[in-house]
Design brief:
The complex is a heterodimer of chains A (288) and B (271). By secondary structure, chain A is mainly alpha-helical. Chain A has a single domain (53-287), classed as MetI-like fold (Orthogonal Bundle). Chain A has eleven helices and two strands; from the N terminus they run ααββααααααααα. Chain A has helices at residues 8-42, 48-52, 65-96, 101-113, 118-132, 139-163, 167-174, 180-209, 212-215, 237-246, 253-287; strands at residues 55-56, 61-62. Chain A has a two-stranded antiparallel ribbon. The longest helix of chain A is centred in the first third of the chain and has 35 residues, at 8-42. Chain B has 271 residues and is of the alpha/beta class. Chain B has a domain at 17-113 and 182-266: P-loop containing nucleotide triphosphate hydrolases (Rossmann fold), CATH 3.40.50.300. Chain B is built from ten helices and ten strands. In chain B, strands 5-4-1-2-10-9-3-8-7-6 form a ten-stranded mixed beta sheet. In chain B, α3 runs parallel beside α6 and α4 crosses α6 (165-177). Chain B is globular. In chain B, 46% of the residues are buried. The chains are: A mainly alpha (288), B alpha/beta (271). The A-B interface holds A 98-99, 166, 168-169, 171-179, 182, 186-187, 191, 285, 287-288 and B 66, 68, 71, 73, 96-101, 103-104, 106, 108, 110-113, 122-123, 125-127, 159, 161-162, 172, 175-176, 178-179, 181.
Chain lengths: 288, 271
């Protein structure tokens, strides 16, 4: 082996690495540009008034408080329905359901739920919750609609979190006469909880960004007051962003970017929260 | 089976009642037969070792007694398995209650990811004990019995996962003792441990055999010879189903095996 000489193998290794690095840079560039552009253009619109006042003149003036509050209500409403149902279904599918064609088709159906276009969920919600159950165009109907969409995620993440709990724990517990439910309740669920919560938080952040489904089940174009009951219509950040950027002539550019910035902060902060929960759980497992 | 010889701990087997009994047991996993026609009687308050080459169904046989095989989809048992003369595969048997009476220690120590105290208290809590003082008494007694108390008495609230492998295994034994079982099944309890930890567990087993019926599956021939009163030698038949080759007093099985295959195995000619 001569010093200084670069062999053919090393050369091809360097070429491969360079290619991979370039690909990675290309992948993250659009994300960086989007985030930077939104921050640069939107920062000037952010003010105390913008965050705490109701809009006026179709959103051209005033703030976006109803849209922020509406989005938070939606996230809350979504998770209230999607988390318990998702966890319970996840427990059933992993711990109780027998391995047969029915279980396999249910699993397949759940995976495919995630692939259904969101506007289809919207139309489903319109048909079922708005019209059939007479919830009307409302926060409740929208929350239920988004919950249906979020279920795919909460069931899947709950299942994965439950499956990741070692079989040895379950055996140890059953072998000293604990029932299956006691084993799940006192051993499996506490271990799976960080994974479940992470999935729930991600599902919430995704719901916060949905525009199409809520469009047809209750989001208001312009409603400068906060919803008082679950049966009220509401404003939401993504839909507000859509209306101010596409449907209101003469809208100040700064306001549009400002709405986008607030939406981005809401969604990203929830993603960061999910990451923190996951990291802390991993840390605790390593220290234990 | 006639049992009237003196055990290694000075007891006379003839005085010990039969605790566990299998009668022409067949075990299937789906269409695969894992055990064929096994009949034997396991005496109470003694250590019975199940030995045999890998894959002969030792663990499957052990798991008959606390119905752990129930957890495997497609597992099916034919023939009789009895605890104190009661058929435990009867439909009226409460499996949870059975497993309280027949505890199990696994190959790999499996302490729960919680404190030492909570590990031992886990069983009693699930069986309805909630008084903290009472649970502390149970924990102390069980840890003493498992010869672990002196090593962990100052770290009861620390994570059980921080203990050494040998300590973890003794903790798992304490966890089983805490629910006051009658039988303790041990599935190669020392195979993940170093020789010193192994000896500690063996000493512990001898002490526990004063009050408990112990059935141990082991790969380690010396361990079976050192620790057990009775020994059963299982071997795979041609279709890979495990069958009983020989069963008797450990002292006789190891010094004067009746079957050629037993002799070949214990002298290390195969397996």
């Amino acid at each position: 082996m001569k010093a200084g000489a670069i062999s053919k193998r090393q050369l091809s290794q360097r070429a491969a690495f360079s290619l991979l690095i370039i690909a990675t840079i290309i992948v993250i560039t659009p994300v960086l540009i989007i985030v930077l552009q939104i921050i640069i253009n939107g920062a000037s619109a952010i003010s105390w008034e913008f965050l705490t006042q109701s809009p006026s003149q179709a959103g051209k003036a005033g703030g976006i408080l109803p849209a922020i509050v509406g989005t938070f209500y939606l996230m809350l409403g979504t998770i209230v329905f999607a988390l318990p149902l998702g966890v319970m279904a996840g427990i059933y599918l992993t711990e109780y359901a027998k391995e047969n064609w029915l279980t396999r088709s249910i699993n397949l159906a759940i995976v495919n739920l995630a692939g259904v276009p969101s506007i289809v969920y919207g139309l489903f919600g319109l048909g079922i919750f708005v019209l059939m159950f007479h919830f009307g165009m409302s926060l409740l109907a929208a929350s239920l609609t988004l919950a249906c969409q979020a279920l795919a995620m909460t069931v899947t993440t709950s299942r994965e979190a439950i499956l990741s709990v070692p079989r040895e724990y379950r055996e140890g517990s059953l072998a000293i006469g604990a029932t299956r439910w006691q084993t799940i309740r006192h051993l499996v669920l506490p271990q799976a909880l960080p994974g479940i919560i992470t999935g729930a938080v991600l599902a919430m952040s995704r719901s916060a960004g949905e525009t199409a489904p809520i469009l047809v089940v209750g989001a208001a174009f312009f409603l400068p007051r906060l919803p008082q009951t679950p049966f009220d219509q509401f404003m939401a950040l993504p839909y507000h962003l859509y209306t101010v950027s596409a449907h209101v002539p003469g809208m100040p550019q700064g306001t549009i970017w400002g709405v986008a910035l607030v939406l981005l902060v809401v969604v990203l902060s929830f993603n960061v929260l999910a990451t923190i929960i996951r990291l802390r759980a991993r840390q605790r497992r390593l220290n234990a | 089976m006639k049992m009237n010889s003196v055990l290694s701990n000075g007891k006379v087997i003839g005085q010990n009642e039969t605790k566990l009994r299998t009668e022409a047991v067949n075990l299937y996993y789906g269409s695969f037969q894992a055990l064929r026609n096994i009949s034997l009687e396991i005496p109470e308050r003694a250590i019975t070792a199940i030995i045999g080459p890998s894959g002969c169904g030792k663990s499957s046989f052990l798991r008959l007694f606390n119905r752990m095989n129930d957890l495997i989809t497609g597992a099916r048992v034919e023939g009789g398995v009895e605890l104190d003369g009661i058929p435990i595969y009867d439909t009226t048997i409460d499996v949870v209650e059975l497993r309280k009476r027949v505890g199990m220690v696994f190959q790999k120590p499996n302490p729960f990811p919680m404190s030492v105290f909570e590990n031992v208290a886990f069983g009693p809590r699930r069986h309805g004990r909630s008084n903290l003082g009472e649970l502390e008494d149970i924990a102390e007694r069980s840890l003493h019995q498992a010869a672990l108390w002196d090593e962990v008495k100052d770290k009861l609230s620390q994570s059980a996962l921080a203990l050494s492998g040998g300590q973890q295994q003794r903790l798992c034994i304490a966890r089983v003792l805490a629910v006051e079982p009658e039988v303790i099944l041990m599935d190669e309890p020392c195979s993940a441990l170093d020789p010193v930890a192994t000896l500690k567990i063996e000493d512990l087993m001898r002490n526990l055999a004063e009050n408990y019926t112990i059935v141990i599956v082991t790969h380690n021939m010396q361990q079976a010879a050192r620790v057990s009163d009775m020994a059963a030698f299982l071997m795979m038949e041609e279709d890979r189903a495990g069958g009983l080759v020989e069963y008797g007093l450990t002292s006789e099985l190891f010094t004067n095996p009746k079957d050629k295959r037993t002799e070949d195995y214990i002298t290390g000619r195969f397996g």
